[in-house]
Amino acid sequence: MADWNKDQWGVQRGQRHPPFYTLSGEPTPGHSQPYAQPVVQPQDDLQSSANQKTPFEDGRFQLKKQVNDIFFLILFILQFAGFVVLSGVALSGYVSDNGLGGGVGNGSQVGSSVTLNRHTVYLLLFVTAAALVLSVAYLILARIFTRALMHITLVLSIILNIAICVYYWITGYYSGAIIFTIIALFSIFAYFGFRSRIPLASLLLQVVMDVSKHHKSVYVVAFIALISQAALSVWFAYTLIAIYTKWTPGNPSCDNGTSCSGSTVAGLVFYAVFSYLWTSQVIGNVALATLAGGAYGCWYYFGPREQGQMPRHPNLSAFGRASTLSLGSIAFGSLIVTILEIIHLILNAARNNANAQGSFVEACLACCAEFFVGCIEGLVNYFNRYAYIEIALYGKPYIKAAKDTWTMFMDRGIDALVNDSLVGMTLTWGAYVIGLLCSLFGYLYLRLTHPAYNADGQYTAPVVLFAFLIGLQCSMTMSTAIEAGVSTIFVGLGEDPQVLAARAPDLFRLIALTYPRVVEGVPRV
């Protein structure tokens, strides 16, 4: 460790320029910074220690004795209990009917042709396994090829927008083609502005990943969250197929007094998808709050473990707070995002249906509404992440955490720094790529195995959609481990920017150079 900290940047003491900068003064991040930086008081702010808050300022890291947002906690528990009951009833019929047959590989020889059967269960299990592997591989690539991956992310986003635009024009889907033409043009012009943000995002991502390297429990939390997400996805897959098996008209269970109808299937599938999305959101956000209030938050406010001030087992205590007293607040914020995701899915289905019927006006309106809802969802996700960190650090209710987050962003100018960070975009793009790869796998599996229930292709769209959701949710859960660290640093900057000068001096210099308002001293109130 001592040898690593001595001259990691390949620059000896006494050089004219800081190790993070070239002779021209341009930032050129290379290797990440040492985990345990020597505590050196910044020369340009000799009184910063007098203004710096203590780690326990304003109740930070202190256990509260009140359950926040208890109404949403009860609502979350009730909906999950409802999913358990629904799953139990559906799976009991699924087992008694032997899953309507089907299996691995070519399903045309066996299995019912009425609806989804065991063939689809195995397909979604394979999709979940692929999502696990791809999520881990993407994080490894993000650490090794940080800057290159960010450039590739920007370029691929442009290529994807252009490809979708061209496809919609060729297929005659003009409403979507017009919107994606505008998006493609905007992404091309925005690329030149985004390129200048890569050095900051690259160093920020590397610092966070090196902090996590010294706290193995970060990856333990992420892996447990990922396994929990995968297990929920498998459970959801079985339940989903069991719903089709039990309540689709023409199935054997319909002859035993079961009320079977298309509306029943649609309603139960809607509830199952809603429960899956909400629960998966809560799993990811509990992991985020655990890491923000644990290893990352303690590293920022207490310093590295070697200094002896960091509490023992910070992630364990943070998980205890997030999964009990603050679970209602996390469920509250997650519910808002889930509702927006459901609306987004409904509008997407309406757009596809209108497009299939050749209704240009309806398709255009649905596409515009879908885009508008997607923007709102992005804004809610934007603030929710930092609200969860306030909840993790201070134990605040959701509404108060959201208000305090907004105030801090506006007063300190953190919003400009967050907007310029490409870390979230890089990880989100990776999640969408993994979701698309999983959906492609599901599509190819259906095409190559020819299951009896999909002879006319009527189940291709829902199976591909479910595969995409599983891949997306698994990847987003895994990337939470990194986004939690980046977001915690942003919150720390808003509260005590001087601390970052000791924790990561070169990152502090680059932020001070680009965003001087952010790193101004924070007066104690």
Please tally the β strands and state the result: 0
Uncertain stretches of 5 or more adjacent residues: 1-33, 39-50, 99-116
Q: Main sheet, how many strands, which sense, barrel?
A: none
Strand content: under 5%
Rounded to an integer in angstroms, the radius of gyration calculated over CA atoms is 25 Å
Order of helices and strands: HHHHHHHHHHHHHHHHHH
What is the residue-averaged pLDDT?
77
Give the helix tally. Answer: 18
Distance separating the two termini = 39 Å
The helix fraction, in percent, is over 70%
The dominant shape is globular
Structural class: mainly alpha
Please describe the topology of this protein.
Layout (H helix, E strand, L loop, with lengths): L1 H5 L41 H4 L18 H27 L21 H27 L1 H26 L2 H22 L2 H17 L2 H31 L14 H41 L11 H9 L4 H30 L3 H35 L3 H15 L1 H7 L2 H27 L10 H36 L1 H7 L1 H10 L11
Helix pairs in contact: 3-8, 3-9, 3-11, 4-5, 4-8, 4-15, 4-16, 5-6, 5-7, 5-15, 6-12, 7-16, 8-9, 8-16, 9-10, 9-11, 9-12, 9-16, 11-12, 12-13, 12-16, 15-16, 16-17, 17-18
